[in-house]
Amino acid sequence: MKLSQFSFKLPEAQVALYPHKTKRVVKTSTGEERTFEVTRRDEARLMVLHRKSETIEMYRKDENGNPIEGEFIEFKDIVNYFDEGDTFIFNDTKVFPARLYGTKEKTDAKIEVFLLRELNEEMRLWDVLVEPARKIRIGNKLFFDEVNEMVAEVIDNTTSRGRTLRFLYDEDGQHDVFKRSLFALGEAPLPRYIIDRREVHHATEEDMEDFQCVFADKEGAVTAPATGLHFSRELMKRLEIRGINSAFITLHCGLGNFHEIEVEDLTKHKMDSEQMHIGKEACELVNNTKRSGHHVCAIGTSVIKATETAVGTDGMMKEFDGWTNKFIFPPYEFGLADSMVANFYHPESTLMMSTAAFGGYDLVYEAYTKAVENGYMFGCFGDSLLILND
Question: Is this model's pTM higher than 0.90 or not?
Answer without folding.
Answer: yes
